[in-house]
Amino acid sequence: MNVTLYSTKSCPHCTAVKKWFRGHGIRYTELRVDQNSRAAKTLARKGLRGVPQVEVGGTFVLPLTYPKLTKACGIK
């Protein structure tokens, strides 16, 4: 399962999602939209504003809530 976290350095909610991933043993790729213009453009093309945004298996988890993230990541 490919999991991508779109984040910025100063985002406290991004930090919380990273902690949640670590707590559940979820491996993920972090793309910092404040440093990666391609990642920022990806979000803009999808009409997504703000971070964190999480993509699981090519699908964005919207709205980003822990119950939806749990289901998308296949956690029982």
Automatic annotation (TrEMBL):
<feature type="domain" description="Glutaredoxin">
    <location>
        <begin position="3"/>
        <end position="61"/>
    </location>
</feature>
<dbReference type="GO" id="GO:0009055">
    <property type="term" value="F:electron transfer activity"/>
</dbReference>
<dbReference type="GO" id="GO:0045454">
    <property type="term" value="P:cell redox homeostasis"/>
</dbReference>
<protein>
    <submittedName>
        <fullName>Glutaredoxin</fullName>
    </submittedName>
</protein>
<dbReference type="InterPro" id="IPR036249">
    <property type="entry name" value="Thioredoxin-like_sf"/>
</dbReference>
<dbReference type="InterPro" id="IPR002109">
    <property type="entry name" value="Glutaredoxin"/>
</dbReference>
<dbReference type="InterPro" id="IPR051548">
    <property type="entry name" value="Grx-like_ET"/>
</dbReference>
<dbReference type="Pfam" id="PF00462">
    <property type="entry name" value="Glutaredoxin"/>
</dbReference>
